[in-house]
Automatic annotation (TrEMBL):
It comes from Candidatus Coprenecus avistercoris. Residues 182-199 have a biased composition (Basic and acidic residues). CDD domains: M23_peptidase (cd12797). Keywords: Coiled coil, Signal. This is Peptidoglycan DD-metalloendopeptidase family protein. GO terms for molecular function: metalloendopeptidase activity. Residues 1-20 form the signal peptide.
């Protein structure tokens, strides 16, 4: 009996629905979304103490909305999986119950037959009354098989009963999981509705500041253009020196390793992308273009540090209006830029490794750390998100 209980427990623990072969990946993705929402909440909490309404607050809120929508989609998928498995498990339970009824009926017939022939004298008389030796052998085999069949049917009944216990336990587990997922989905939907109302309210309030925002945008455009020109000048000069042999030789082995890690590089800081690579549009005035972004802007909790995404050499440190200190790191023919640093921990010529601290990130007007990060291959700008894992 104890052994059967152990087998039952092990089987219940290891029984997983066919739809959940990638359940670990789903859980990891769900965990990532929950962590992203928590990280945004932390930054919004800091923002609310500084300014109630700002573009970054609106952007973070929208990022949170997107993350929550993805989380709800994930829960919808989980619930659909649970429902499908519950349906198939109910069908299996019905099949096992039907099989159990058949086995018990057949077993009862066998037991009655065995009962009638339980006396050895009856067995002998039945065999001896045979017309010939062949009939006697057949009757002997029949009586012998009755006893064997009774034992076999008893074992089949026990096995089916155990299968039925497993399926019933699995069904209860699936129902509990489905109920939990549905409750969680309802909670997320309520939160989503609240956040959507907040975002719409922010748009209404911020739209009243159109003139001031356009002035800020013009100033930002000038700062971006100055930064981009300086970075392009530095890179063009570096490539020119390498080709002429005047500069340090390109570490092609390092370049190859860097290239092999496309999509695998660690993030320079744990945060949320609030400005993507390329052409972005104003979060309030949809037809208004933002300055073209040669990199990405990442919002992170105050006090966060920028970390090296790969081994390399610090090539240059510069100071730019609107971007504070910027650190250029060379990785063979690749370059990474870390801008908006209020404190730098490295100096030109330093060899650094993946994960090394480069500097403390400056705070934006909302009180959150905001890193501007760029990645280049020679003089060709790259979308950093395609390189980061």
């Amino acid at each position: 009996m104890t052994r059967r209980i152990i087998i039952l427990c092990v089987a219940v623990l290891t029984a997983i629905p066919s739809w959940s072969q990638n359940v670990q990946e789903q859980r990891e993705r769900k965990k990532q979304l929950e962590e992203e929402i928590a990280l945004i909440d932390k930054q919004l909490s800091t923002t609310s103490k500084k300014r109630k309404q700002s573009l970054n607050t609106l952007i973070l809120t929208r990022q949170k909305l997107e993350a929550r929508k993805k989380l709800i989609d994930r829960l919808d998928s989980d619930i659909a999986g649970y429902d499908s498995s519950i349906s198939s498990t109910n069908a299996e339970i019905a099949r096992l119950n039907e099989r159990l009824d058949t086995l018990r009926k057949y077993h009862a017939d066998l037991v009655r037959g065995a009962y009638k022939t339980r006396d050895n004298k009856v067995w002998f008389m039945y065999i001896l009354s045979s017309k010939d030796i062949n009939q006697g052998l057949r009757r002997w085999a029949y009586l012998k098989n009755i006893s064997l069949s009774v034992r076999q049917q008893a074992m089949a009944i026990k096995s089916t009963e155990l299968d039925l216990q497993l399926e019933n336990a699995r069904l209860e587990e699936l129902k509990a999981g489905s109920m939990q997922a549905k409750a969680e989905r309802e909670k997320e939907r309520d939160a989503l509705s609240t956040e959507e109302r907040k975002a719409n309210s922010m748009v209404v309030q911020l739209s009243k500041e159109e003139r001031a925002m356009k002035r800020e945008l013009q100033q930002k455009q000038k700062e971006v253009e100055r930064l981009n020109k300086e970075i392009e000048r530095i890179l063009a000069e570096a490539v020119k020196q390498q080709k002429s042999g005047k500069g340090a030789a390109v570490d092609y082995a390092l370049s190859a390793k860097f290239g092999e890690n496309r999509g695998k590089l660690p993030w320079p800081v744990s945060g949320v992308v609030i400005q993507k690579f390329g052409q972005n549009y104003h979060p309030v005035f949809k037809n208004l273009k933002m300055p073209y972004n040669n990199g990405i802007n990442i919002s992170a909790p105050a006090g966060s540090n920028a970390n090296a995404v790969f081994d390399g050499v610090v090539k240059q440190i510069l100071v730019m209006p609107g971007y504070d200190q910027c650190v250029l790191v060379q990785h063979g023919e690749y370059f990474t830029f870390y801008c908006k640093l209020k404190r730098v921990y490295v100096k030109s010529g330093d060899k650094i490794s993946t994960g090394d601290r480069i500097g403390e990130i400056s705070l934006n007007e909302d009180g959150n750390a905001e890193l501007h990060f760029q990645l280049w291959k020679g003089t060709e700008k790259q979308n950093p998100e395609n390189w980061l894992r």
